[in-house]
Give the backbone structure.
Amino acid sequence: MSVGLDRFDSFCFNPHKWLLTNFDCDLFYVADRRWLTDALSITPEYLRNPASDAGAVIDYRDWQVPLGRRFRALKLWFVLRQYGADGLRAHVREHVRLAALLEGWVRQDSRFELMAERTCNLLCFRLRGDDALSRRLMDRLNASGRMFLSHTVIESTGQKRLVLRMAIGATTTREEHVRAAWGWIVEEAQRLVPSR
């Protein structure tokens, strides 16, 4: 068991980002399946049987997995068969490397500041100055259609600040795409805040 996983009652994530699987597929772990099924089960008398009551079989209907409908996990199975664990690890590691590369470029440009530690493939940064500058930068970049940045608000030194979020995770993203995105960010930043 992974370090710390034994402290979780449940863990859930969507593989539509780094596991190359389209929406509508979900992965979850429960430490004790009975907690989940007890919370979600509505078992009429005609579905009761000794095997289910004893826990000898898994009744997936109690896990809220619709039976007789879509096979959501098949998408993920195909991805695992195509890429394998090594291929998926390489995919994730490459995106983490690209985010670290971007982090270095942000650190080198005095117009920008990092607002949080990089988390895997997510970088939170902003233009120095008031929030309006970062908002204008984001709006201009997003309006260009060349890229899309999202934003959030992070509290820093007792002040809530608007920050730009760049997550590197698209299936076909390569270093050339991240370099181009950074170039566009710098180009628009230059218009708003000339180099110092």
In short: The domain at 84-192 is CATH 3.90.1150.10 (Aspartate Aminotransferase, domain 1). The two ends are 51 Å apart (CA to CA). The helical segments are 33-40, 50-54, 73-108, 131-144, 175-192. The CA atoms of residues 27 and 162 lie 32 Å apart.
